[in-house]
Specification:
- The complex is a heterodimer of chains A (443) and B (289).
- The longest helix of chain A is centred in the first third of the chain and has 25 residues.
- Chain A is an alpha/beta fold and 443 residues long.
- Helices cover 45% and strands 14% of the residues of chain A.
- In chain A, helix 3 packs antiparallel against helix 15 and helix 18 packs antiparallel against helix 19.
- Chain A has two domains: 236 residues, Periplasmic binding protein-like II (D-Maltodextrin-Binding Protein, domain 2, 3-Layer(aba) Sandwich); 193 residues, 3-Layer(aba) Sandwich (D-Maltodextrin-Binding Protein, domain 2).
- In chain A, strands 1, 2, 3, 6, 11, 12 and 13 form a seven-stranded mixed beta sheet that branches. A four-stranded mixed beta sheet of chain A has the order 8-9-7-10.
- Chain B is an all-alpha fold and 289 residues long.
- Chain B is 76% helix and 3% strand.
- A two-stranded antiparallel sheet of chain B has the order 1-2.
- In chain B, helix 7 crosses helix 9 and helix 12 packs antiparallel against helix 13.
- The longest helix of chain B is centred in the N-terminal third of the chain and has 33 residues.
- The two termini of chain B are 34 Å apart.
- Classes of the chains: A alpha/beta (443), B mainly alpha (289).
- Chain B: It is a multi-pass membrane protein.
- Chain B: Keywords: Cell membrane, Membrane, Transmembrane, Transmembrane helix, Transport.
Chain lengths: 443, 289
């Protein structure tokens, strides 16, 4: 029920956001221009020692599971900089961008906060984020310290805005107990999509409410990987055209949906009633695609603890599809304590912060050569698959102004297809048309 | 005191409420009308005047008409059901029975329950495979994700949540009816139903008039149950999406505040018309003594 839990938290958040939005409307004139003038931060390097004023920074994140690790980093930072305290604030993902979009024009963005590649362009082009280019050039921070060229996600018009925090890829979680009962060998890196579909059928016992696979209607943790593996695309490389109407994409979507028709997966309605990962956690699903960030959550279920593991995603006709995404830490352009915020931001990008993130199993840190500690944080699970798949994974298809517009509409259209109101092909074509329109409108 | 200083005092007394109303209700309402004539960029920091373009888009938008239909359909189901049930329970609780206050508290409880918390319970109750409602009825219906039933699920939750307060309002109305009338009717030999029909109901009409208006306005603003119960990946969403939900999506999810503003401004017009009609027709059925 995690999804629903988030949903009701959102109810509260919405009210706050609405109130913020209303007050924000009145005072939107003062904070527009000042962001572009990069503040003189010559003292940035040793600002902490220069000013001894007591300051509390707000660090806003969306994942409650990572809160302990982020607080631990904040504590260690305060130990080094006794005059700067860090308050970690969690806003659940469902409300995070609603609240940020109200806070941005009101000039009340948190001092430091998590940024997602999908939302980045909107905030950076609106001058709400403090550029850190001069610090990178001054050598205060080295973008080569971070794996998989993650720093480049948060560049716009030659400016750097974020320090890479972590990266994530998608894996295949499987329930060992259900595999043992059905006498099916565990998934490994030789599996392809045909094998996945075949095993899913063998593992399913619909009369007992047990299904081989959760063919959920999901993008990053779902059919985007299928589409890429089958040789299709989500959006063209230059970001100007949707890939949903590519025949290879449609074929991949249909193959996933076929698993519902074959009763090898719960129906869309069932997965609307109960989140599919929750079904996996209660031992009703044998296999599911999920992001590494759900590891702690899944392993926290008493029903499945010790009875599950990760495998790589299956291979498709073209390749092994996998989406890689990386979060970044950014700072507000209108913060009151930018020098202190920069000190903290720099610390968040340090090797030490990455080690804390890894050891506490919060996320795969972006800092090079610290990932091993994350893999070791849960030795009973094959976490190495996420690191291995990062090498040839496809970046999350964001980085345009159009993305925040088409992304929420995508799920609305695909819900009609997954719910059986329109065909998969029709749904994919509608999404393509909608995406192309959004791209044209938001050049 | 001369009349002038009396006015001054009167204004001072209403100032807190008046200020609150202007600041938090009137100003945003007018601002949303202004917004609907703009095309905003960059979270509303850059605005262009586009005149009626948003309304043009609105009237051509099939989804808008569908959402309007959904909203009115919800209202038509929700308002009469709430009125009937609230009146029924109010009449029952107006009697002298043991544990009266306990019953009143029980019926009022939904009103003080956080809607979000209640919605979570309803999601479980409505579930297809293990839900209590299907168990009770012996059915196997996906209440909240089947396009045929989702609206009824919303109405059930809505009525359940609205009975408490309206029952209380009607109860207050009932207690304002002089006992002497009932005594006189008893002497004339009237039985229970006739008393209800010819004394209670006519004298209750001012209260019913008020509750109907409030309920109708409330019904056109249905949002939280759709947001919490149905959700954005639900295939039934287009069948139940209300105008306010569409406003939320456009303003806060698609970042198009201007189109969102046009939607709520239409809602404002609709509510003005509905309330105007109510007042026009009140002579026909409302009895003021």
């Amino acid at each position: 029920m995690a999804f629903r839990k988030k949903a009701w938290l959102s109810g509260v958040g919405m009210t706050v956001a609405a109130a913020l939005a209303l007050t924000g409307c009145g005072s939107n004139d003062s904070n527009g221009g000042n962001a572009s003038s990069t503040t003189n931060n010559a003292a940035g390097g040793n600002a902490a020692s220069a000013s001894k004023e007591n300051v509390t920074l707000t660090y806003t994140i969306w994942d409650q599971l990572q809160q302990p690790a982020m607080e631990a980093i904040g504590k260690e930072f305060t130990a080094e900089n006794p005059n700067i305290k860090v308050k970690v604030e969690v806003i659940p993902w469902n409300d995070y961008w609603t609240k940020m979009s109200a806070a941005a024009p009101a000039g009340t963005l948190p001092d430091v906060f998590w940024m997602h590649s999908g939302q980045f362009v909107k905030y950076a082009s609106g001058k709400f984020l403090e550029p850190i280019t001069d610090k990178v050039q001054a050598g205060e921070i080295n973008m080569d310290d971070y794996a998989a060229n993650l720093g480049s996600i948060y560049q716009l018009d030659g400016q750097n805005y974020a320090i890479p925090k972590d990266f994530d890829t998608i894996g295949l979680a499987y329930n060992k107990e259900l595999f043992d009962q059905a006498g099916v060998p565990y998934p490994d890196d030789t599996w392809d999509y045909a094998k996945l579909a075949e095993a899913a059928k063998q593992l399913s016992q619909p009369d007992k409410g047990i299904y081989g696979f959760a063919a959920k209607m999901d993008t990053q943790g779902g059919y985007w990987n299928d589409m890429l593996a089958n040789g299709g695309s989500i959006i063209s490389a230059d970001g100007t055209k949707s890939g949903y109407d590519d025949p290879a994409s449609i074929e991949a979507l249909q193959a996933r949906y076929q698993m519902i028709l074959d009763k090898a997966s719960p129906s869309h309605q069932q997965m609307t009633d109960t989140d599919s990962t929750e079904m996996f956690k209660s031992g009703k699903i044998a296999m599911i695609f999920e992001g590494d960030w759900r590891t702690t959550d899944i392993d926290g279920s008493d029903i499945i603890k010790g009875k599950w593991n990760w495998a790589p995603l299956p291979k498709g006709k073209a390749k092994r599809g996998d989406i890689i995404n990386g979060l970044g830490n950014v700072m507000s352009a209108s913060g009151k304590h930018k020098d202190e915020a920069w000190q903290f931001l720099k610390f968040l990008g340090s090797k030490r912060a990455a080690e804390i993130t890894a050891q506490m199993g919060a996320a795969i840190p972006a800092f090079k050569d610290t990932q091993a500690a994350w893999v070791q944080s849960k030795p009973q699970l094959n976490l190495q698959v996420f690191i291995d798949q990062a090498a040839d994974a496809t970046p999350y298809p964001a980085g345009t102004k159009a993305y925040p517009v088409w992304f929420p509409k995508e799920s609305e259209i695909m819900a009609q297809a997954w719910g059986g109101k329109i065909s998969i092909e029709e749904g994919a074509k509608q999404v393509a048309a909608m995406m192309n329109q959004a791209i044209a409108d938001n050049k | 005191m001369n009349s002038r200083s009396r006015y001054v005092w009167a204004y001072i007394m209403i100032a807190p409420t008046l200020l609150g109303t202007v600041l938090f209700w009137s100003w945003p309402a007018f601002y949303s009308i202004y917004l609907s004539f703009l095309k905003s960029e960059n979270f509303g920091m850059v605005n262009h005047w586009v005149g009626l373009a948003n309304y043009e888009k609105l009237f051509k938008d099939k989804e808008f008409w569908k959402n309007l239909g959904n909203t009115l359909y919800y209202m038509v189901l929700f308002v009469p059901l709430t009125l009937v049930f609230s009146t029924f329970f109010a009449v029952l609780l107006n009697a002298k029975i043991r544990g009266l206050s306990a019953y009143r508290v029980i019926f009022f409880l939904p009103q003080v329950t956080m809607p979000a918390a209640a919605a979570m319970v309803w999601v479980v109750l409505f579930a297809r495979d293990y839900g209590f409602i299907n168990y009770l009825l012996g059915t196997h219906v996906a209440w909240i994700s089947d396009t045929r039933f989702a609206m009824f699920a919303l109405v059930i939750v809505g009525v359940w949540g609205a009975i408490g307060l309206n029952m209380l309002l009607i109860l207050a109305g009932l207690q304002g009816i002089p006992k002497a009338l009932y005594e006189a009717a008893s002497i004339d030999g009237a039985v229970r139903f006739r008393k209800f029909r010819y004394i209670t109901l006519p004298l209750l009409t001012p209260t019913l008039f008020f509750t109907t208006i409030v309920l109708m306005i409330g019904a056109t603003q249905v949002f939280d149950s759709i947001y919490l119960l149905i959700g954005k990946t639900n295939v039934a969403l287009p069948e139940v999406r209300s105008l306010v939900y569409a406003y939320y999506q456009n303003s806060f999810v698609y970042y198009d505040q201007n189109y969102g503003a046009a939607i709520v401004d239409m809602l404002l017009v609709i509510n003005l018309i509905l309330t105007g009609l109510q007042f026009a027709f009140q002579k026909k059925w409302v009895t003021y003594d």
